[in-house]
Amino acid sequence: MARGADRLRILFTNHQLGETGGTEANVRDWAIGMQRRGHRPIVYAPVLGRTAETLTERSIPVVDDLAAVAEPPDVIHGTHAPTILEAIVRFPRTPVVQTCQSVGYTMSIPLSLPQIRRHLAVDEATRDYLVVELGIPADDVEIVGNAVDLRRIPARARPLPATPRRALVFTKTQSQVPLVEEACRRAGIAVDTLGRGVGRVVADPEPRLVGYDLVFATARSAMEAIVAGAATIVVDGRGLAGMATRGNFPHFRRHNFGLRCLVHEVALDAITREIARYDVAEAAAVTAMARVELDAERQLDRLEVIHRTVVDAFVCEEPAEARLLAALVPVLHTWLPRFPGTAWPWQFEKAAMLERIKQLETALARERAETVAATRPAVTSKRRTFARRILAALAGRFEAAG
């Protein structure tokens, strides 16, 4: 725990603090964890909501305008370029750590400014994106994988049954859902759905996970399911990785249980085979491994070291234009593009494309559901080709790496 001079004022930034997604969950867990360790977190986002309320309930200061923060932080830690840039202009003598959570997302493009002292990648894909595609020096990049706050997941009330009875599709995509539901129906497993992909979002999904024997999920959702003690099949609309086991856990972990793991086609027979791999002892062993490897306390240990290192090493002369930069803060606050968007054309173009993706996902899910209901065999070769074409577009342009 930090004491005296070791205590840091840490400004966390994010593009929004509404419904909890990947970056919102990170900011929430980092701020709460650092407060628990004796540091002084402050959180900034231009759009506030449910996640902000969670933080204020823990007495963590949350602001939607950096002009309200009179005391400079020791370090700034953020993900999205617009809010990090705003923080740099507000506090030009403060070092910055920027996390890259996804590949190709405009908001997460790294900033090349003297204040940026360390770039954090969540997996090998985001690390390669930073170093190979964007030219960030390898020495400035560290992989710090996503983690799970074990305090948020209660103990499982009873061990897994010998055969699964209840399953959950915990997902941000929709097109795989009919195939998963049909595979579970054939196996006699009741299925529920949860997540943005199915339009059912809850503030605290973690306590629900311990009530399921089998979970279908990817990325952070898969990590939470494994830690909660469920047998977990890593799958979403982009592809299938398979049942998490002790053998593949290190590989899945390196790739954030995300896109680089999803190498198999989402098909009814493939999902059925993975369900057949359900094994109570193996699931328990994977959970035990995950509760060590994915524990947020280990991640916080690393972040403390990184924050302290950049603070100790950072030297920045007071810029001659400091007063001008301070005056620019309200201008940037008003005019920088930000989630959920202003009058900037690319924001509306992106929103239209994302809506089109949603429509294609819905159409693919409906087609699969109709095919399953009418014939029960796996989808035809022609439809598989159609599905691959859509999902390739999703993965190539708009999907996150994790």
List its salient traits.
alpha/beta; Rossmann fold; 402 residues; 12 strands; seven-stranded parallel β-sheet; 2 domains; single chain; five-stranded mixed β-sheet
Per CATH, the class of the largest domain reads Alpha Beta
Q: How many domains would you count in the coordinates?
A: 2
Give the helices and strands as they follow along the chain: EHEHEEHEEHEEHEHEHEEHHHHHHH
Number of helices: 14
Based on secondary structure, the structural category is: alpha/beta
Largest sheet: 7 strands, parallel
CATH fold type of the largest domain? Rossmann fold
Ends apart, CA distance between termini: 31 Å
Q: In which order are the strands of the major sheet placed?
A: 3-2-1-4-5-6-7
Low-confidence stretches: none
Shape: globular
**CATH homology group of the largest domain:** Glycogen Phosphorylase B
Q: Mean of residue pLDDT?
A: 86
Strand share of the residues?
5-15%
Level-2 CATH architecture of the largest domain: 3-Layer(aba) Sandwich
The number of E-state strands comes to: 12
Radius of gyration: 22 Å
Helix % is: 40-55%
